[in-house]
Amino acid sequence: MRFDVITLFPELFAPLLTAGITRRAYESGLVEVCLHNPRDFAQGNYRRVDDRPFGGGPGMVMMAEPLEATLLHIRAQRSDQAPVVLFSPIGSTLKHEGVEAWSQSSGAILLCGRYEGIDQRFIDRYVDQQISLGDFILSGGEIAAMALLDAVARLQPGVLTDAQSHHQDSFNSALDGLLDCPHYTRPEVWSGAPVPDVLLSGHHARIEAWRRQQRLELTANHRPDILEQARSKGLITKADERLLQAKN
């Protein structure tokens, strides 16, 4: 798959593409990332990419012409009609189901806004989908783009050391969308706090039952909305409900 990223700051992506486990996805070509700076496609001696907003107000607005030239350059390089994705406060919140869908796609063109935003005429003409990370504002779309790329990369075959690791992640369908359970490692007693006995028992059925109970309780306490979603899909069994009732 290929992701083309339109950004005024391509240098921000260097650590993402060269460090950490997910770099395997980029180095192997499982996820190809191409960076494009609109300044390279802007006209004039100053290669201007932004201007003051009509109607007044603070800040600057990214201009449509350089963005269009950048997009047409990318379109000429790609053989598909990849969707153009803008990271924006009005977008749908990115969730695990969305990441899974992107991880099985052929990629997209990711548009990273800056300043006060992007000329709305470009958005109306070219943007196919808008995505948000949540109800807060970033300085630009680069961090959001990196979040999507990282989440997609770790789902690719061979990227994680243990191929089953992501199946135990919070929100994964393998866990019925619940939050993951707590995890422990050596030493068995740290600062007076021991590891739960069941995890040292070697009894796999008991361990899995404990983990299920922990996932249910954590989700009920911290993300009851997710628990209700699982209930509506018929993923919470009568045994699960008894575990929740017993804890209450």
From TrEMBL:
GO molecular function list: tRNA (guanine(37)-N1)-methyltransferase activity
EC number(s) reported in the record: 2.1.1.228
Top EC group: transferase
Family, similarity comment: Belongs to the RNA methyltransferase TrmD family.
NCBIfam families assigned to the protein according to its UniProt record, in alphabetical order: PRK00026.1, trmD
Stored Gene3D superfamilies: 3.40.1280.10, tRNA(m1g37)methyltransferase, domain 2
Catalysis performed (reactions): guanosine(37) in tRNA + S-adenosyl-L-methionine = N(1)-methylguanosine(37) in tRNA + S-adenosyl-L-homocysteine + H(+)
Name listed for the protein in its UniProt record: tRNA (guanine-N(1)-)-methyltransferase
Biological source species: Rhodoferax potami
Subunit structure: Homodimer.
Keywords for the protein's UniProt record, in alphabetical order: Cytoplasm, Methyltransferase, S-adenosyl-L-methionine, Transferase, tRNA processing
Major location category of this protein: cytoplasm
Domain of life: Bacteria
Transmembrane segments: none
Entry function: Specifically methylates guanosine-37 in various tRNAs.
Binding-site list for S-adenosyl-L-methionine: G113, L133, G134, D135, F136, I137, L138
Annotated gene: trmD
GO biological process assignments: methylation
Domain tRNA methyltransferase TRMD/TRM10-type: start-end pairs: 1-229
Subcellular location: Cytoplasm
